[in-house]
Amino acid sequence: MKKMQKMLVITFCIACVLGMTAFPGWAKEVPPQKPLTTAEVLAEARTEDWRTLDPQNTIYLELNGGRVVIEMAPLFAPRHVANVKALAREKYFDGLAIIRVQDNYVVQWGDPHAEDPAKARKIVNGKPTLPGEFDRPCGDDVPFTPLGDGDVYAPEVGFADGFPAARDKASGRMWLAHCYGMVGAGRGDTADSGGGAEDYVVIGHAPRHLDRNCTLFGRVVQGMEHLSSLPRAGGPMGFIEKPGQFIPIRSIRVAADLLPAERTELEILRTDSETFRRLIEARRSRSEPWFLFHPGRVELCNVPVPVRKKEWGK
Fold this sequence. Notes:
Layout: H1 2-22, H2 38-43, E1 50-52, E2 58-63, E3 66-72, H3 78-89, E4 97-101, E5 106-110, E6 136-137, E7 144-146, E8 156-160, E9 163-168, E10 173-176, E11 182-185, E12 199-202, E13 215-222, H4 225-228, E14 247-254, E15 266-269, H5 274-285, E16 307-309
Antiparallel strand pairs: 1-15, 2-3, 2-14, 3-13, 4-5, 4-14, 5-12, 6-10, 7-8, 8-9, 9-10, 11-12, 11-13, 15-16
């Protein structure tokens, strides 16, 4: 008897499934979910999706035009980060200059007299050069959010600790990528000829061919307009040839060394959060009404990491 009842139940269930297939109106249709825009994703972000900019790893580049806020990446270039902070604390950069403004490429600053030992600014506590920190081992200490859309320059790209990054699982190495706003240490022909005394910011297209050839140690999180709008220099590779045209640096300071009232308090969207993963999808699908064609793909440097003023009391 029990066996017969079970067969009847199974038969009834199969009939229900076949009936819904034959008569679609019996099953409730679920409308497709509309993809969210980037603005909608950010509007739904939770407080815990944001992290406060660490003043110990933040420097302020002060120009006559305004403040440039740079977040540094000690997980990728610890020696360069430490050296730039040491140079800032001895006020090495104060009164130096922006010496290069190359269109669609970089802005570079340093000592205009660096090649003249008699006139070059003396380094007291920092180091003039360091071994290159072009990449680092892959590790659990760096959360990695993969992009999944492929890349020309690396087997895999994504975001690590807030920075655009790439990795090669076969070699076990990962590195920062040259996207807009990334900050690196200039160098000469040898890997150990840089150190942070002369630095550059990407202001144009993403020169990814520089990946693993230069040490990237940070990115601009606020104030890019003070760099990208500078007049382009006419010298080879965008170097300024006339001393009177150098753009003065007022100072570079470590944020932690300033009083709280003097700091620029910012929050960065966590790139290991579900909100950031949804943001990537929004950038991939581009569902805003203006878009007639939806690419369905996105490149690493076309996913900016959101930054906002710190919301006190939340």
